[in-house]
């Protein structure tokens, strides 16, 4: 049974692909509460490299924003017990003797496309899946590293650090790799959960660039003296490894009270799947592009990536760039009032991956596939939400079929849980209840793993989830109708 000590406070640094935040998490007998102390944008910057545009993360500015948030956190909570960092997956920085060699590339940069064929020339898709259990995504870390190897960028590197590991290194001076995020690289063996050195050697990477692996819940170290001084902390603060892949942390905070649940972690991406004790490495799973990613406490997140609310946010950016004033609440209300049938398109089509004019690309897709072309912004948004709900429903059904796990309820967490229309459409298409929330699931999972490492709370993942359910009651969406036209 979960037990808690007197209330204590930890700081969750939660970095998404479009924004970041620093949250203070209070954990005690009364439950869990969160308070944001800083929110900041996070987006790519476009640089000119040999006459070609490339997308990078402004990781130095992001780190500055993190420090500013931690400064507020330390001022508001002088007794801060711990800090934990999570972020998106696959992207990394190359270092030499502790110095970053270049800004990390953004996973939407096109440089990896030629690297896919080069990688598969050494190890084919079926062989890779048997080794790493990962779905094929053209921006997975191993393809990015092949691109760097081809460009000569690995020649000077003596360390590769994924984004949350990089920030932990800057905070503590300790270079390690937390396993949940390392599992997204394609270079972690899905069975042993160790670096796959034979595969690393075959692909031509220097195995010495890969840092030691640690599990979520491990103390990494204390803040460096310079960092302690910069944020105004009274004493050094522990930095704890949490489920540093944001979805791993989000799944910790799924408020499930039964075992028959599937989850949808919905933000920029939609991660749709089930939690298992071990990987599923079937050819059917590979063909369906399902992935076996590491979870906290050695669990497996068996899931499929869906394009997610990127489709909506990038469409809004396109309209605003053209001079339109968009109020999201009004746009969603108008989409909910659309009564005419709208196109249900393939949300995972690769044409939707890159930044740019997504409304035009969606209309092109509809034209090419003889689907009804959206005539207004409201119709296009309704088409996006119907298409996402369709992809989510198919993902849940496939996860259940491929894994053999019965699903009786779906938990939709993250920012998408606020989109009631999307939640209801998903429930309708599945014919299952969808429980929406908590919105800040990633930060909650981050806080809980820190709190357990600090001895502030004890228990299994199931017991931690029961604590979440008591603290953040989800909103229930019951199927109003069951759609069978998929």
Automatic annotation (TrEMBL):
Keyword Protein transport: no
Domain Carbohydrate kinase FGGY C-terminal, residue spans: 262-453
Domain Carbohydrate kinase FGGY N-terminal: 60-252
Example GO molecular function: ATP binding
Gene Ontology annotations of biological process type: glycerol metabolic process; rhamnose catabolic process
Keyword hit for Nucleotide-binding: yes
Pfam families: FGGY_C (PF02782), FGGY_N (PF00370)
Keywords: ATP-binding, Disulfide bond, Kinase, Nucleotide-binding, Rhamnose metabolism, Transferase
SUPFAM superfamilies: Actin-like ATPase domain
Tree of life domain: Bacteria
InterPro entries named in the record: ATPase_NBD, FGGY_C, FGGY_N, Rhamnulokinase
CDD domains: ASKHA_NBD_FGGY_RhaB-like
Family: Belongs to the FGGY kinase family.
Protein name: Rhamnulokinase
Organism classification: Bacteria, Bacillati, Actinomycetota, Actinomycetes, Micrococcales
